[in-house]
Write a structure and sequence with these properties.
By secondary structure, the protein is mainly alpha-helical. Among the domains are: 71 residues, Serine Threonine Protein Phosphatase 5, Tetratricopeptide repeat, CATH 1.25.40; 31 residues. 60% of the residues lie in helices and 3% in strands. The protein is built from eight helices and two strands, in the order ααααααααββ. The chain is globular and about 45 Å long. It starts with 8 loop residues before the first helix and ends with a strand.
Length: 173
């Protein structure tokens, strides 16, 4: 199915998972990287990060850097890249990415990532302030994956819409 429609996220992710389970993790990662180069969609990036684990973290960081140059306006990609950089301890790089995101887009996630950043820098007061901001922003209307077919929101990305069952229809709002 992923060969018939190279942008069908559920098929790409399922094929990558199957390759990884068969011990072909490198092949799975290459498949996901090719798909992300075309269009960095949430499901593909989530699966890529999960399969990359710690073994492929440096490769993932390098890939995200190239992907950001190719898709400079993709906010979801910027947020994911900032999180990966934070996890890798590359605080200055994560900070730079967070500074480049329009703060009106996903304020709760940005504040949560800033809280993590300040916590890692051992700036406790700033971390607490950002954490409070994240909690407050989360109470507001935070973009969630929404079905392109029926419009129903979902708490997380899934291969199928939980409301109407449409495949590959969930995208960040």
């Amino acid at each position: 199915m992923s060969r018939e429609d190279p942008d069908f996220v559920p098929a790409i992710c399922a094929r990558a998972e199957a390759l990884a389970e068969a011990g072909e993790t490198r092949k799975a990662i290459r498949l996901l990287e090719r798909a992300a180069r075309r269009r960095p969609r949430t499901g593909i990036l989530e699966t890529l990060e999960r399969l990359a684990g710690t073994d492929f973290k440096p490769r993932l960081i390098k890939f995200y850097s190239k992907l950001l140059a190719r898709h400079p306006d993709n906010v979801a990609l910027k947020l994911r890249a900032a999180r990966v950089l934070l996890d890798a301890g590359k605080l200055a790089d994560a900070d730079k990415i967070l500074d480049g995101i329009d703060a009106s887009v996903d304020r709760a996630t940005i504040a949560a990532l800033r809280a993590l950043l300040e916590e890692r820098r051992e700036h406790v007061d700033l971390a607490q302030r950002e954490a409070r901001r994240a909690i407050e922003e989360a109470r507001l209307d935070v973009p969630r994956p929404r079905c392109g077919s029926c419009g129903a929101p979902s708490s997380t990305w899934q291969p199928r819409c939980p409301a109407c069952g449409a495949w590959g229809s969930l995208e960040a709002a």
